[in-house]
Protein backbone atom coordinates (compact mmCIF):
# COMPACT_ATOMS: atom_id res chain seq x y z
CA UNK A 1 0.00 0.00 0.00
CA UNK A 2 2.83 2.32 0.96
CA UNK A 3 4.67 1.67 -2.31
CA UNK A 4 1.45 2.24 -4.26
CA UNK A 5 1.02 5.65 -2.64
CA UNK A 6 4.63 6.53 -3.50
CA UNK A 7 4.10 5.58 -7.14
CA UNK A 8 0.93 7.67 -7.29
CA UNK A 9 2.83 10.61 -5.81
CA UNK A 10 5.60 10.32 -8.39
CA UNK A 11 3.06 10.01 -11.21
CA UNK A 12 1.14 13.09 -9.96
CA UNK A 13 4.37 15.08 -9.72
CA UNK A 14 5.39 14.23 -13.28
CA UNK A 15 1.93 15.09 -14.55
CA UNK A 16 2.06 18.49 -12.81
CA UNK A 17 5.54 19.17 -14.22
CA UNK A 18 4.37 18.32 -17.73
CA UNK A 19 1.57 20.87 -17.58
CA UNK A 20 3.88 23.62 -16.30
CA UNK A 21 6.56 23.17 -18.98
CA UNK A 22 6.39 25.49 -22.02
CA UNK A 23 5.20 23.79 -25.17
CA UNK A 24 7.44 24.20 -28.19
CA UNK A 25 5.72 24.01 -31.56
CA UNK A 26 8.19 22.05 -33.65
CA UNK A 27 6.38 22.85 -36.87
CA UNK A 28 6.78 26.63 -36.44
CA UNK A 29 3.14 27.18 -37.44
CA UNK A 30 2.25 28.87 -34.17
CA UNK A 31 5.36 31.02 -34.36
CA UNK A 32 4.43 32.05 -37.89
CA UNK A 33 0.99 33.16 -36.73
CA UNK A 34 2.50 35.20 -33.91
CA UNK A 35 5.04 36.79 -36.21
CA UNK A 36 2.34 37.70 -38.72
CA UNK A 37 0.67 39.76 -35.99
CA UNK A 38 3.72 41.95 -35.34
CA UNK A 39 3.53 45.65 -36.06
CA UNK A 40 6.16 48.31 -36.53
CA UNK A 41 6.27 49.37 -32.91
CA UNK A 42 6.48 47.27 -29.75
CA UNK A 43 5.73 43.93 -31.43
CA UNK A 44 8.90 43.83 -33.55
CA UNK A 45 11.79 41.82 -32.17
CA UNK A 46 14.51 44.39 -31.35
CA UNK A 47 17.11 42.08 -32.86
CA UNK A 48 15.27 42.16 -36.21
CA UNK A 49 14.46 45.88 -36.39
CA UNK A 50 15.81 47.59 -39.47
CA UNK A 51 16.62 51.27 -39.82
CA UNK A 52 13.14 52.38 -40.83
CA UNK A 53 11.56 50.27 -38.08
CA UNK A 54 13.73 52.13 -35.56
CA UNK A 55 12.77 55.51 -37.03
CA UNK A 56 9.07 54.67 -36.88
CA UNK A 57 9.45 53.33 -33.34
CA UNK A 58 10.82 56.71 -32.24
CA UNK A 59 8.49 58.81 -34.39
CA UNK A 60 5.42 56.87 -33.28
CA UNK A 61 5.29 59.24 -30.31
CA UNK A 62 6.26 62.31 -32.34
CA UNK A 63 4.12 65.40 -32.58
CA UNK A 64 5.27 67.45 -35.55
CA UNK A 65 6.94 70.74 -34.63
CA UNK A 66 4.76 73.81 -35.11
CA UNK A 67 4.60 74.88 -38.73
CA UNK A 68 5.79 71.51 -40.05
CA UNK A 69 4.18 68.32 -41.28
CA UNK A 70 5.92 64.93 -41.10
CA UNK A 71 5.04 62.77 -44.08
CA UNK A 72 5.96 59.23 -45.05
CA UNK A 73 7.06 58.68 -41.47
CA UNK A 74 10.07 61.01 -41.36
CA UNK A 75 10.08 63.58 -44.20
CA UNK A 76 9.46 67.13 -42.99
CA UNK A 77 7.71 69.80 -45.02
CA UNK A 78 6.34 73.19 -44.16
CA UNK A 79 2.61 73.78 -44.37
CA UNK A 80 3.38 76.05 -47.34
CA UNK A 81 4.47 73.05 -49.39
CA UNK A 82 1.89 70.92 -51.18
CA UNK A 83 4.21 68.00 -51.95
CA UNK A 84 7.36 66.36 -50.65
CA UNK A 85 9.01 66.12 -54.06
CA UNK A 86 11.18 68.73 -55.72
CA UNK A 87 11.05 69.50 -59.44
CA UNK A 88 14.06 68.67 -61.55
CA UNK A 89 17.36 69.23 -59.76
CA UNK A 90 16.19 72.29 -57.83
CA UNK A 91 16.68 70.64 -54.45
CA UNK A 92 20.18 69.27 -55.04
CA UNK A 93 23.21 70.59 -53.23
CA UNK A 94 25.59 72.34 -55.66
CA UNK A 95 28.65 70.64 -57.05
CA UNK A 96 31.99 72.37 -56.58
CA UNK A 97 34.49 72.99 -59.36
CA UNK A 98 36.65 70.20 -57.93
CA UNK A 99 33.88 67.68 -58.63
CA UNK A 100 32.78 67.18 -55.03
CA UNK A 101 29.48 68.16 -53.44
CA UNK A 102 30.13 69.86 -50.12
CA UNK A 103 27.28 69.77 -47.61
CA UNK A 104 28.01 72.08 -44.65
CA UNK A 105 26.60 71.07 -41.28
CA UNK A 106 26.39 72.13 -37.66
CA UNK A 107 26.14 69.58 -34.86
CA UNK A 108 24.29 70.69 -31.76
CA UNK A 109 26.48 71.05 -28.65
CA UNK A 110 23.80 69.03 -26.84
CA UNK A 111 25.19 65.85 -28.39
CA UNK A 112 27.77 63.95 -26.37
CA UNK A 113 30.93 62.42 -27.84
CA UNK A 114 29.30 59.08 -28.66
CA UNK A 115 26.39 60.81 -30.39
CA UNK A 116 28.80 62.82 -32.52
CA UNK A 117 30.73 59.69 -33.46
CA UNK A 118 27.50 57.93 -34.45
CA UNK A 119 26.32 60.81 -36.65
CA UNK A 120 29.72 61.33 -38.23
CA UNK A 121 29.93 57.59 -38.96
CA UNK A 122 26.63 57.91 -40.85
CA UNK A 123 28.16 60.77 -42.83
CA UNK A 124 31.33 58.81 -43.52
CA UNK A 125 29.34 55.79 -44.75
CA UNK A 126 27.97 58.06 -47.49
CA UNK A 127 31.14 60.05 -48.21
CA UNK A 128 33.39 56.98 -48.48
CA UNK A 129 31.61 55.77 -51.61
CA UNK A 130 30.31 58.97 -53.20
CA UNK A 131 31.28 62.49 -54.18
CA UNK A 132 29.32 63.89 -51.21
CA UNK A 133 31.48 65.47 -48.51
CA UNK A 134 29.93 66.62 -45.26
CA UNK A 135 31.97 69.50 -43.88
CA UNK A 136 31.62 71.54 -40.68
CA UNK A 137 29.96 74.85 -41.47
CA UNK A 138 32.05 78.01 -41.33
CA UNK A 139 30.23 80.84 -43.15
CA UNK A 140 28.01 79.04 -45.69
CA UNK A 141 24.46 80.37 -46.04
CA UNK A 142 22.93 76.95 -46.76
CA UNK A 143 23.68 74.21 -44.24
CA UNK A 144 22.26 71.32 -42.23
CA UNK A 145 21.54 72.17 -38.61
CA UNK A 146 21.58 68.75 -36.92
CA UNK A 147 19.67 68.87 -33.66
CA UNK A 148 18.48 66.36 -31.02
CA UNK A 149 14.86 67.41 -31.57
CA UNK A 150 11.91 65.09 -31.00
CA UNK A 151 12.16 62.20 -33.45
CA UNK A 152 14.21 61.32 -36.53
CA UNK A 153 13.32 63.46 -39.56
CA UNK A 154 14.69 65.58 -42.37
CA UNK A 155 13.53 67.88 -45.12
CA UNK A 156 13.83 66.60 -48.67
CA UNK A 157 16.85 67.93 -50.54
CA UNK A 158 18.35 71.36 -49.98
CA UNK A 159 15.74 73.85 -48.82
CA UNK A 160 18.02 76.84 -48.33
CA UNK A 161 19.33 78.62 -45.28
CA UNK A 162 19.54 76.86 -41.94
CA UNK A 163 17.93 73.47 -42.56
CA UNK A 164 17.01 71.41 -39.49
CA UNK A 165 17.70 67.69 -39.48
CA UNK A 166 16.47 66.02 -36.29
CA UNK A 167 18.29 63.07 -34.71
CA UNK A 168 16.89 62.55 -31.24
CA UNK A 169 19.22 61.01 -28.67
CA UNK A 170 19.28 58.18 -27.84
CA UNK A 171 16.44 56.89 -30.08
CA UNK A 172 17.94 57.98 -33.40
CA UNK A 173 21.53 57.18 -32.49
CA UNK A 174 22.16 54.53 -35.11
CA UNK A 175 24.68 55.46 -37.80
CA UNK A 176 22.27 53.93 -40.32
CA UNK A 177 19.48 56.22 -39.12
CA UNK A 178 21.80 59.20 -39.60
CA UNK A 179 22.61 58.01 -43.14
CA UNK A 180 18.88 57.56 -43.87
CA UNK A 181 18.01 61.10 -42.83
CA UNK A 182 21.05 62.49 -44.64
CA UNK A 183 19.91 60.77 -47.83
CA UNK A 184 16.55 62.52 -47.47
CA UNK A 185 18.50 65.77 -47.19
CA UNK A 186 20.33 64.83 -50.40
CA UNK A 187 16.97 64.48 -52.20
CA UNK A 188 15.97 60.80 -51.88
CA UNK A 189 12.52 59.53 -50.96
CA UNK A 190 11.85 56.04 -49.59
CA UNK A 191 12.61 53.17 -51.91
CA UNK A 192 9.09 51.69 -51.84
CA UNK A 193 7.76 55.13 -52.89
CA UNK A 194 9.40 54.73 -56.31
CA UNK A 195 7.09 55.16 -59.26
CA UNK A 196 7.85 51.59 -60.42
CA UNK A 197 7.50 49.90 -57.02
CA UNK A 198 4.43 47.83 -57.99
CA UNK A 199 6.66 45.65 -60.16
CA UNK A 200 8.72 44.68 -57.12
CA UNK A 201 6.53 44.76 -54.02
CA UNK A 202 2.90 44.28 -53.11
CA UNK A 203 1.42 46.81 -50.71
CA UNK A 204 -1.08 45.01 -48.47
CA UNK A 205 -3.50 47.90 -48.01
CA UNK A 206 -5.84 45.99 -45.70
CA UNK A 207 -3.06 45.53 -43.14
CA UNK A 208 -2.16 49.24 -42.89
CA UNK A 209 -3.47 51.39 -40.06
CA UNK A 210 -6.04 53.49 -41.95
CA UNK A 211 -4.64 56.80 -40.68
CA UNK A 212 -1.27 55.97 -42.23
CA UNK A 213 -2.30 54.74 -45.68
CA UNK A 214 -1.11 58.02 -47.20
CA UNK A 215 2.47 57.05 -46.28
CA UNK A 216 2.41 54.39 -49.00
CA UNK A 217 1.62 56.78 -51.83
CA UNK A 218 3.87 56.42 -54.85
CA UNK A 219 5.93 59.46 -55.80
CA UNK A 220 6.85 60.79 -59.22
CA UNK A 221 10.49 59.77 -59.02
CA UNK A 222 13.60 59.75 -61.14
CA UNK A 223 14.69 56.15 -60.71
CA UNK A 224 18.12 56.90 -62.18
CA UNK A 225 18.02 53.80 -64.40
CA UNK A 226 18.86 51.83 -61.28
CA UNK A 227 17.44 48.48 -60.13
CA UNK A 228 14.93 48.37 -57.31
CA UNK A 229 16.87 47.91 -54.09
CA UNK A 230 15.23 45.73 -51.42
CA UNK A 231 18.30 46.32 -49.21
CA UNK A 232 18.26 50.10 -49.48
CA UNK A 233 18.76 52.09 -46.31
CA UNK A 234 15.70 54.00 -47.55
CA UNK A 235 13.33 51.01 -47.62
CA UNK A 236 10.42 50.56 -45.20
CA UNK A 237 10.38 47.40 -43.12
CA UNK A 238 8.00 44.55 -43.87
CA UNK A 239 5.62 45.51 -41.06
CA UNK A 240 5.74 49.31 -41.40
CA UNK A 241 2.49 50.89 -40.17
CA UNK A 242 0.87 47.47 -39.74
CA UNK A 243 -2.39 47.29 -37.81
CA UNK A 244 -1.27 43.95 -36.40
CA UNK A 245 -2.92 41.81 -39.08
CA UNK A 246 0.31 40.99 -40.91
CA UNK A 247 2.95 42.54 -43.16
CA UNK A 248 2.22 45.68 -45.15
CA UNK A 249 4.92 45.09 -47.79
CA UNK A 250 5.57 41.77 -49.53
CA UNK A 251 8.39 41.47 -52.09
CA UNK A 252 7.68 39.76 -55.39
CA UNK A 253 8.10 37.37 -56.96
CA UNK A 254 9.90 35.97 -53.89
CA UNK A 255 7.97 37.01 -50.74
CA UNK A 256 10.86 35.95 -48.51
CA UNK A 257 13.39 38.46 -49.86
CA UNK A 258 14.66 40.49 -46.87
CA UNK A 259 13.72 44.17 -47.14
CA UNK A 260 15.37 47.07 -45.39
CA UNK A 261 18.44 46.62 -43.22
CA UNK A 262 20.13 47.99 -40.12
CA UNK A 263 23.69 48.81 -41.16
CA UNK A 264 23.85 51.74 -43.56
CA UNK A 265 23.72 52.68 -47.25
CA UNK A 266 23.74 49.76 -49.66
CA UNK A 267 26.02 49.66 -52.69
CA UNK A 268 23.04 50.67 -54.82
CA UNK A 269 22.28 53.59 -52.49
CA UNK A 270 25.79 54.91 -53.04
CA UNK A 271 25.55 54.29 -56.77
CA UNK A 272 22.31 56.27 -56.98
CA UNK A 273 23.79 59.20 -55.08
CA UNK A 274 26.63 59.38 -57.59
CA UNK A 275 24.26 59.12 -60.53
CA UNK A 276 21.92 61.79 -59.13
CA UNK A 277 24.81 64.19 -58.52
CA UNK A 278 26.61 63.21 -61.73
CA UNK A 279 29.93 62.63 -60.07
CA UNK A 280 32.20 60.06 -58.53
CA UNK A 281 32.33 56.34 -59.30
CA UNK A 282 29.10 55.00 -60.76
CA UNK A 283 29.98 51.34 -61.00
Automatic annotation (TrEMBL):
Annotated GO molecular function terms are: metalloendopeptidase activity; zinc ion binding
Q: Supply the SMART domains for this chain.
A: ZnMc (SM00235)
Residue ranges of the Peptidase M12A domain?
82-280
- Its domain of life reads Eukaryota
Name the cofactor(s). Answer: Zn(2+)
Q: Which residues bind Zn(2+)?
A: 180, 184, 190
Give the matching InterPro entries: MetalloPept_cat_dom_sf, Peptidase_M12A, Peptidase_Metallo, ZnMP_hatching_enz
Keyword annotations: Disulfide bond, Hydrolase, Metal-binding, Metalloprotease, Protease, Signal, Zinc
Q: Name one GO biological process term.
A: proteolysis
Q: Where is the signal peptide?
A: 1-20
The UniProt record lists the keyword 4Fe-4S? no
Catalytic residue list: 181
Q: What is the UniProt remark on how the cofactor binds and its stoichiometry? A: Binds 1 zinc ion per subunit.
Q: What is its EC number?
A: 3.4.24.-
The record, for Pfam families, names: Astacin (PF01400)
PANTHER family per the UniProt record, alphabetical: DISCOIDIN, CUB, EGF, LAMININ , AND ZINC METALLOPROTEASE DOMAIN CONTAINING, METALLOENDOPEPTIDASE
From the Swiss-Prot or TrEMBL record, give the protein name: Metalloendopeptidase
Q: Which gene encodes it?
A: hce2l1
Amino acid sequence: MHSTMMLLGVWFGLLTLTYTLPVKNSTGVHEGKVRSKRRYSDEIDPDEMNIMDQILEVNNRLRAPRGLAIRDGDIASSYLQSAITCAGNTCLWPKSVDGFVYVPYLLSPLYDDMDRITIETGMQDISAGTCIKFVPRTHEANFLDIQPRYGCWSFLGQTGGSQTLSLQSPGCMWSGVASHELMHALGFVHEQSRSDRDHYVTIVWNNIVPAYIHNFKKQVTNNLNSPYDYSSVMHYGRYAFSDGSGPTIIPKPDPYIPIGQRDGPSALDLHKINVLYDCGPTE
